[in-house]
Amino acid sequence: MSIWWSLHLRREAASVPLARRFLLGTMETAGVDPDISFDLSVALSEACANAVEHGGDHSVQESQADQGGARDPWDVWDELPGAASGQYRVTAYLDGEKCRIEVADSGPGFPARRTHRTSAQQHGTQQHGTREYGPQQYEPRQYPPLSAEDGRGLCLIEQLADHVHFGNRPGQGAVVSFDKVLKWRKDALLMVS
Q1: Each residue's pLDDT tens digit, 155-183
Q2: pTM of the predicted model, to two decimals?
Q3: Which of 18, 43, 77, 126 could form a disulfide with 157 if both were Cys (CB 3.0 to 4.6 A apart)?
Q4: Could you tell me whether strands 117-118 and 2-10 are parallel, antiparallel, or unpaired per DSSP bridges?
Q5: Above 80 in pLDDT, residue 130?
Q6: Which among 112, 66, 106, 64 is positioned nearest to 89, based on CA atoms?
């Protein structure tokens, strides 16, 4: 069995716990081990908080909306051309033995140094299998100092997920995607086939 869902959320702080609760409810209903669900929910919260904070500029959108007339607040696709988005998208796939989560926004994107990593590469071990990209050199990650106010959330996502990709959509914003191998409770109602 596979489960897929997508949420289009406003870039507001209240959307972060909403996305987290939605994911936790899905995982519990499917019968995913609570420890795995917790790790994924914390990683999702960090990705959503990043999209809320860095995913666009509210003031630009609001000033352009004022010039263009009334907009339907329920139409998430009613974006003005060139306006920074007031929304972001969360998509989750539970398929087979893996869960993949993607959070996409329309902000300025990540700096060019961000790379595709797996948790094995973060810890200096080799992992067999294929990569989405050609050969790359993985430099040791420089984590922000404990007193830093920015950057710790992305590091936390890297630590909680098995596979992480921070990417940019040209002219459209940033995408954070991460995977984790699922473990199931013994009493799981929706065992993956």
Answers
A1: 999 999 999 999 998 778 899 999 999 99
A2: 0.71
A3: 43
A4: unpaired
A5: no
A6: 106
